[in-house]
Amino acid sequence: MNLIDLTIHEMQQQLADGTTTAVALTEAFLKRIHATDEQLNAFITVCDEEALAAAREADAQRAAGNVLPLTGIPVALKDIFVTEGIRTTCASKIFGDFISPYDGTAVRKLKEQGAVIVGKLNMDEFAMGSSNENSAFGPVRNPWNSDCVPGGSSGGSAACVAARQAAASLGTDTGGSIRQPASHCGVVGLKPTYGRVSRYGVIAYASSLDQVGPLTRDVRDCAIMLGAVAGYDAADSTSVDTQVPDYLANLEQGVAGRKIGLPKEYFIDGLDDDVKQAVDDAVAKYRELGAEIVEVSLPHTKYAVACYYVVATAEASSNLARYDGVRYGERVDEGKGLIDMYSQTRAAGFGDEVKRRIMLGTYVLSSGYYDAYYLKAQRVRALIRQDFIDAFEQVDCILTPVASTAAFGLGEKTSDPLQMYLSDIFTLSANLAGICGLSLPCGLSDNKLPIGVQLLGKPFGEAELLQTAYAYEQASDWQGQLPTL
Amino acid sequence: MKITRAEVEKVARLSRLALGDDELDALTGQLDAILGHVEQLNELDTDGIVPMAHAVPLENAFRADEVKPSLGSEKALQNAPNPVDGCFGVPKVIE
Fold first, then answer.
1. Which CATH superfamily is domain A3-242 in?
2. Residue A288 — φ and ψ, nearest 5°?
3. Res. B29 pLDDT band, cuts 50 70 90
4. Which residues of A are catalytic?
5. Above 90 in pLDDT, residue B45?
6. Which of A48, A282, A447, B21 could bridge to A453 as Cys pair (CB 3.0-4.6 Å)?
């Protein structure tokens, strides 16, 4: 078997029994990146030298008997995570050649666990987008079909795992940005509960919604990666000080007797037939495995897109005010004073979608519109959260489609921002409510593109969510389906 | 119309974005469509609902007031477009 085809847990085994080394794994992935990335454009920065140095160190540590879960495992990072000594761009021109003076917490934890970082991944600029077409470094292409988008905003994070350019990756999810690309690329993607993983050193988009999570080849790898990055961090006052369970301990527990809810509002007209069929098949499989399937209602679902695009853009307009050409990045100064310098720098540095969201966010926060839009959306957000609290009194987990279609074509939705926003309808609510959610491969479309099923869990219920996902994965044919890239 | 071209210009000024006429025209139509969609929130009676700013209940996170090493000016300035005498240089603000 080719080294790049191994899962993390298989690599751990081979590293332990001496069949392979961190250097051999890292060389294999770097070779794969250089062979495939001209086509995919999943990476913004590839760190050959740093990765090989880290791999040699990992092998030395192993030889000395110091073995941690990720010792020698090659992983890649969405370019939203700041990394000491390696350029961070957030897929925006506004950062110029920014090099962070420190590592963010999730990156530090991965390094402390012995992981080898092979590079920084392409994404929608500032994580704003659903197709990875909003990148200053060009679009990422779907490894299953290069005419299709990989999804977004963590498009590079999903494509690189599907294309076996890294064993796993980290992404961020503000409205579906891990789960939707995971679905479109046929990998496992987890958005943990808000507060589960530190956001320190993650470039902020919408701070009350952003969350860090892994994209992996299978569910066991997902549990390993979550365990590596989860936990309270004094540097992020919104991270929650609650114990990190051993996500591997009861992974094989099964779903017998578990109650899985199907929200009637998610099974609507407009769902593609092959998506509906794949999700129905997943439900049937869960029934076979002994789960009890229950219809539930999330009555405010139809308001999620409107609510999200007010809350998220309001927070974004505030967060992105810091990019002013003063402390880092490309400054545009025509000698007409400070305000002009800000305005020219920002106009030149931000792409169209980022400008659109800053404008929308500024508008809904502006005097005279604040109550009508921003406060109204925050009240609706409370209703959406209450829907989930009520549903989780009846069921352990909620099952839905991730997206209404498989991956769409490049350029297909770029002319109509609202239509692009509406494609996030099934994933946004989890961020608004702050709960955890996971996307899991559950089929292929008629056009041989992956389809994902979404499992939503209670706050801090990641262990149960992973168990539920694992049970299906082991019983289905979709584990290990790979693009013929 | 939810938003006029004049309002879009004002928002661009507030946003510190020097946008061209083409961009302002395109944004007027796009923001109008998006705000039109957002209008459906008004179907919901939200009287008495407490606005939700965060997904988890948060309290102020206090820490002990201890002196600790910080980044240091050399590292803080390493990406500065115009460092001047250990400071961030900016265009003149006061005449």
1. Amidase signature (AS) domain (3.90.1300.10)
2. -55, -35
3. very high
4. 78, 153, 177
5. yes
6. A282
Helix axes A219-229, A8-16, angle to 10 degrees: 80
- At A394-451, the pLDDT tens digits run 999 999 999 999 999 999 998 888 888 888 999 999 999 999 999 999 999 999 999 9
- Name the token pair of B82: 């115009």
Cβ(A137)–Cβ(A119) below 8 Å: no
> Does A245 lie at the interface with B, CB-CB under 8 angstroms?
no
Q: List strand residue ranges (DSSP E) for A184-291, in order.
A: 188-191, 211-216, 259-263
Position A269 scores a pLDDT of 76
pTM greater than 0.80:
yes
Please give, rounded to a whole number of angstroms, the shortest distance from the CA of B37 to a CA of chain A.
6
CB A210 within 8 Å of CB A202: yes
Please check whether residue A213 is in contact with residue A127, taking contact to mean a CB–CB distance below 8 angstroms: no
CA B59 to chain A, closest CA, distance in angstroms equals 9
Q: Look at residue B17 and tell me if it is in a domain.
A: yes
Question: Is residue B62 in some structural domain?
Answer: no
Residue B23 lies in a domain: yes
Give the A:B interface size as CB pairs under 8 Å.
174
DSSP A413-445: STT-HHHHHHTTTTTHHHHHHT-EEEEEEEEE-
Cβ of A234 within 8 Å of Cβ of B63? The answer is yes
C-alpha pair distances (Å), A433 with each of A73, A215, A410, A428, B54: 33, 21, 31, 9, 9
Residues B27, A356: C-beta atoms closer than 8 Å: yes
A192: left (phi over 0), alpha (psi -120 to 50) or beta: beta
Residue B61 lies in a domain: no
| CATH number for position B19 | 1.10.20
Low-confidence ranges of chain A (pLDDT < 50): none
Candidates A238, A315, A363: best to mutate against B (most CBs of B within 10 A) is A363
In chain A, residues 101-140 whose CB comes closer than 8 Å to chain B: 101-102
Chain-centroid distance of CA A389 in Å reads: 24
Domain housing B23: 5-41
Q: How many domains does chain B fold into?
A: 1
pLDDT at B63 over 90: no
Q: What number of other Cβ atoms are within 10 A of residue A367's Cβ? A: 6
Which residue(s) pair with A398 in the sheet?
A261, A456
Compare all CA atoms of chain B with the CA of A308 and give the residue at the minimum distance: B38
What local confidence, expressed as pLDDT, does residue B66 receive?
Answer: 93
Predicted complex ipTM: 0.96
Which residues of chain A make contact with B79, given a CB cutoff of 8 A?
96-99, 327-329
Interface of A with B in 291-320 (CB under 8 A): 300, 302-303, 305-307, 309-310, 317
**How many angstroms separate the CA atoms of A336 and A216, rounded?**
50
Query: Would the CB atoms of A355 and B71 count as touching at under 8 Å?
Result: no
Domain boundaries along the sequence of chain A: 3-242
Helix H segments across A247-303?
Answer: 273-288
Closest residue, chain A, to B90 (C-alpha): A326
